[in-house]
Amino acid sequence: MTESVLPKTDAEREKDAARRAAERKRRQRARDRAVAEIECVREEWALFLNPARLPQKAGCPADRLRAVIVKELADNALDADDAKATASLAQGLDGQGRADRDTWIVSDTGPGLDRARMLRLFAVKRPLVSTKLFRRPTRGAIGNGLRVVLGGAIASRGRLVVETRGRRHVLDVDRATGETVVAEEGPSEVATGTRVTVTFGPALPRRDDDGELAVRALCCAGPAAEPMLTHTDWYDDDGFAELVDAVPAGTTLADLAAQFGLDVDADRPVTATDLALLRAAAPRPPRLLPLGKDHFPGRYASKLVAEGVPVLVEAWSEAVRCPPSHARGTVTLLVNRSPVIAPVSVQPDRDGKMCAWGCNLAHVIDRVSPKACYGVVLAVTTPVVALTTEGKEPNLEPLWPAIEPALATAMRKAYRAVTASAASSGDIKDAAYEVMAEAYDGARGSRRRAEARQVMYVGRRLMLERLPAGTHVSDTYFLRLLPRYIAEHPLITADWQVDYDDRGHLWEPHTGHAVPLGTASVEEYLTDRKRRRGQPDLVAVDDALYPTLGPENRYRTLLCIEKEGFFGLIQEARIMERFDCGLISSKGVWGTAARWGIENLALDGVRILVLHDFDRSGACIAHTINHNTQRYQFKNPPEVIDLGLSLADAKEMGLQDEAAEDEGPGEDRLREYGRSEDEISCLMQGRRVELNAMNADQFIGYVEEALTEHGAGKVVPRDEVLERHARRLLARRVVRDALPPLIAAAEARVATVALPADLRERVHDRQEEEPELPWEDALEAELEDVTPDEGWSVADDPVGSVTCRPPEAASKQAGLAPPDATAASHTLCRSPMLPRSRESPGDRTTCVSSATA
Fold first, then answer.
1. CB of 126 within 8 A of CB of 234?
2. Whole-number Cα distances in Å, 464 to 439, 471, 481
3. What is the pLDDT of residue 730?
4. Crossing angle of helices 145-155/65-83, nearest 10°?
5. How far apart are CA 196 and CA 77, in angstroms?
6. In angstroms, rounded to a whole number, what is the distance separating the alpha carbons of residues 310 and 336?
7. Residue 595: which residues within 8 A CB-CB, separation 6 or more?
8. Are the CB atoms for 113 and 189 separated by under 8 Å?
9. What is the C-alpha to C-alpha distance for residues 562 and 849, in angstroms, rounded to an integer?
10. 83, 135 in Cβ contact below 8 A?
11. Cα 253–256–261 angle (5° rounding)?
């Protein structure tokens, strides 16, 4: 008998479910514990052997690693023997005796290195072994330099060779332990000093300026202080305690005192409390040594702050005049005579005041003109340099009281030097207006028009003859003055034709007509458009569209995009055809020709839409399309619909933003342009979103939605246009049906027309007289005296010839019945190859006449 299985009760089912849930929870906790127990351990030294991680330790981009490594070798060579050693830099040679751009050799005349110290210094696995805790104005700041040198050579799959005290060592790193090992060893010719050869492998990118930082360091050789010792005034209690904790075990007070230039008879271990004892016996502090006025080109200024920790700042500055909107400055920074890769720049702030930025600086430079571009070398010498990054980026903020006076003075001197003999902007404008008419005449020569930059080159030469020596006339400034002069002097410039560079294109839908956005092309387009507004011919045998040029009966919407690259995508999606929409693309800010064209098209009732990047330049592009600028003044400013890109659009589509150049309109101007506060905040933080951040589907969808929202659609012309074109189409059909017999008859009619034998020479002679003619037009001009009925008249050319065939042959070729000899009248053409006096019936040829055809 089979045992029956009773169904479970609800209570039993709930109990089973609870048990299964508890089991799942238990397994989940076990998995969580297993995950938590997996902890990855990475030795810090391993970062120096990874090309992807090495920039983090060196504090520079990957493409600057080679330059930093060569510079570190130069710094260490210059610091040898208390900065008394001389150093040199050379490139290695390849197998053909040519310079090897992957190999650099740095040599010094110092005391050299013993084997143990060499392995200790050139090691990625070591603490920060360094003399930098002794506060002296030495190069570098932390003991990371030689770790980066060895790591860079090995990580790049290159090699590092150290030659010193007569021995040559090829160094490598044990990947398991991180210890430095000598892979090869042998004799060397280097008996004194040290020579280090680094050969970079392919893992580190190479640049043409890899040796530039090292060369700059070598230009600043020599000690930065006299004597090159530390001093007790340069330590507080914490700094001295840090030094005592870091010195080797067993260091005595006498040993440490010697570093301060003191002779102390004390063999006991040094302690942190010995600072007071050393201060009591300390001599005068070392004197910081300047590089000097003539060390770099430019106007020089310096500032020494001697109290406490001394700071010596030197600045050399050059200047070139420019408009305030282009004002900026480059800064080459040296700290204790060593070039620093961390960027420092001079830029105007939102109020137009020149400021120093970088290395924790964000300060206005007192009374420096924003009407110039500056090139500055800034040298800071001090025994104590605070750092902001592991890559030795100095924190210059505490040193600003010494930096600002030297920097400002040098920059003001440079500006005064460049403006002392130069004219003011008002003088430059006056000179430009004085020569403008002569410049235009000189640029156009015997022609009726000239290109704007041609006028600029002639005008600038004439201006410089009138202005003081040293005056700088920028091409940008002149090209801004040129349209202003034209607008302000209508009587003088009434017949001027000045062409500006094409800065984009205008495309019509359906017709395939494209107009470059240059002054001449747009002028021709607008003129032809007006000229062709008359009624078209009723019949045309081609299949062309209704003969329009311009928006009338063709498009009522114009999409303006600030980029040229989207035309192919828009063309593939047939946006222009589906929406009867014209397209203008421009390279950046709208030029004069583009705005002139947009203004005229808007007067014809065309709706103007603009699409641009979300950045500061894009805001300017959206604003200047219908607002006056110095270069273009609207007579009838068009209404423009701004399609974005806006910040809200970018966020809604999840587009990626990116860092932007610090250029374009400032906060107040962006507010004037109608940007929201959120957009202004984002833009002024240096962020942007390009139209290109959208993929193709997003972009086309965005454009289609915008065009639909703002009423772009198909164009249907007025009733009279529809009626006329309908009759034109019907007439075209009638003509097409009637053409075949007419064409056959015409071909038969001209098949035996007499033509001159020297037709080639005649066409050539005609082109000699009118070289602008193509051969087809020259041929047509030569056939003006030839009629389909009579051919070439003998009286016209006594030395010509006739080519013809009997009328029967011509009729058969044309598919017609032979003509009746009694009904047909034949034209008798004398062969002009014979003189008139020798004419005979045998020399005559029969040609088909009009009656025959």
1. no
2. 13, 7, 16
3. 86
4. 140
5. 9
6. 12
7. 624, 625, 632, 634
8. no
9. 64
10. no
11. 115
What one-character DSSP code corresponds to residue 374?
A: E
Bridge-partner residues for 91, per DSSP? Answer: 104
What is the distance between the alpha carbons of residues 611 and 691, in angstroms, rounded to a whole number?
A: 9
Q: In sequence order, what are the beta bridge partners of 380?
A: 313, 335
Q: What is the helix (H) or strand (E) element at residue 419, kind and residue range?
A: helix 400-420
Which residues make Cβ contacts (< 8 Å) with residue 494, sequence separation at least 6?
none
For β-strands 328-335 and 372-381, DSSP reports them as parallel
Full-model pTM: 0.50
Strand-pair category, 581-586 with 658-659? unpaired
- Give the model confidence (pLDDT) of 271-322 as tens digits: 999 999 999 999 999 999 999 999 999 999 999 998 889 999 999 999 988 8
- 330 near 318, Cβ under 8 Å? no
Virtual torsion, Cα 253, 257, 263, 264, nearest 10 deg: -30
**Do residues 124 and 48 lie in contact, with contact meaning Cβ atoms separated by under 8 Å?**
yes
Pairing of strands 338-339, 345-348: unpaired
Q: Residue 273 corresponds to which amino acid?
A: T
658 CA to centre of own chain:
15
Q: How confident is the model at residue 40 (pLDDT cuts 50, 70, 90)?
A: low
Type and span of the H or E element at 829: strand 827-830
Strand-strand pairing, 450-451 and 504-507: unpaired
DSSP H/E element including 568: helix 567-572
At 543 the pLDDT is: 53
Where is 363: in which H helix or E strand?
A: strand 361-364
